[in-house]
Amino acid sequence: MIRIAVTGAAGRMGKTNIEAIQAAEGVQLGAAIVEATSSLIGADAGEVAGVGKQGVAIVGSLAEVMDDFDVLIDFTAPKATLSNLALCAEHGKAMVIGTTGLSEAERAELTSFGEKMPVVFASNMSVGVNLCFKLLAEAAQALGDDYDVEIIETHHHHKVDSPSGTALSMGEAVAGALGRDLRQCAVYGREGQIGARTKEEIGFVTVRAGDVVGDHTVLFATEGERIEITHKASSRMTFAKGAVRAAGWLAGKEKGLYDMQDVLDLRD
Ligand SMILES: NC(=O)C1=CN([C@@H]2O[C@H](COP(=O)(O)OP(=O)(O)OC[C@H]3O[C@@H](n4cnc5c(N)ncnc54)[C@H](OP(=O)(O)O)[C@@H]3O)[C@@H](O)[C@H]2O)C=CC1
Ligand SMILES: O=C(O)C1=N[C@H](C(=O)O)C[C@H](O)C1
């Protein structure tokens, strides 16, 4: 039985991850962690997640429960994720990370932990989005430089990072297939007399509204036609199932930085 710990246990994804662990075979909830200031410390993690008593009391510090799990699933915030990585590396634990919104420096720091421990890091854990990454690279390769590329994403009004991690990964998939560097060609929002669009740019549009779980569209457009590749998530369970699958896949793996393409065996 693989024991999984969940950080951000009272968050939207934390609660859904606990629900997914409870429903999956071969895994069990080992620990649930919230911020040290939370009023939920001591409460049963299953009850907080809405899936009934699990016999796991929520704690306010990861350090307290290092003996209680094999793999940590972390969907929190960049600084918390990096501090959890350091603790897990020190104690020989594996980690599945879904946190988005990392700066370039934070992402480099995260990447370096792959030399010390097994890590799965993915901006989106759903099977559908990971298939889209492949489809997008194939579409970009086939369509080439004649098609303008724009990426439109919509999320719930609580989301704090923009563009979404998934939109950025989609941009990277397209840019890579077209031989471009996303850091050079990304345009994040447009306003004023900015001139006509350049051929190389990849534009990002962010919408934040209501309770949308996560919609992503990549638009390829040229004279006379346009193609749209769209993914719509209607439940966070699609991400949580992916995260739990990644945790099962990661247990017992050699150190290294992996993503969902590895977990789902989608890599060419
Ligand atoms: N890869 C994927 O498939 C997906 C990734 N995500 C990403 O996961 C992350 C979380 O999303 P979501 O669950 O909606 O967000 P929430 O705000 O609902 O949850 C985040 C949780 O992390 C906790 N947290 C934040 N900062 C700290 C800290 N410094 N120390 C300890 N705990 C902390 C928060 O605690 P508190 O409330 O007490 O502040 C909160 O419970 C985001 O980055 C999001 O983009 C989301 C869905 C899918
Ligand atoms: O914050 C969210 O909710 C989501 N975040 C991820 C992202 O930034 O891409 C994945 C998903 O779209 C939901």
Please give a handful of descriptors for the protein shown:
single chain; 268 residues; Dihydrodipicolinate Reductase, domain 2; six-stranded parallel β-sheet; 34% helix; elongated; binds NADPH dihydro-nicotinamide-adenine-dinucleotide phosphate; binds the ligand O=C(O)C1=N[C@H](C(=O)O)C[C@H](O)C1; 4-hydroxy-tetrahydrodipicolinate reductase
Uncertain stretches of 5 or more adjacent residues: none
* Major beta sheet, strand line-up: 2-1-3-4-5-11
CATH superfamily of the largest domain: NAD(P)-binding Rossmann-like Domain
User: What bound compounds does this protein have?
Assistant: NADPH dihydro-nicotinamide-adenine-dinucleotide phosphate, the ligand O=C(O)C1=N[C@H](C(=O)O)C[C@H](O)C1
Structural class, judged by helices and strands? alpha/beta
Helical segment count: 9
Q: Write the CATH fold name of the largest domain.
A: Rossmann fold
Q: Radius of gyration, rounded? A: 19 Å
Overall shape: elongated
Q: What's the story with the biggest beta sheet?
A: 6 strands, parallel
CATH architecture level-2 label of the largest domain = 3-Layer(aba) Sandwich
> What percent of the residues sit in helical stretches (DSSP H or I)?
25-40%
Under CATH at level 1, the class of the largest domain stands as: Alpha Beta
Domain Dihydrodipicolinate reductase N-terminal: 2-125
Pfam families: DapB_C, DapB_N
Protein name: 4-hydroxy-tetrahydrodipicolinate reductase
Binding site for NAD(+): 8-13, 35, 98-100, 122-125
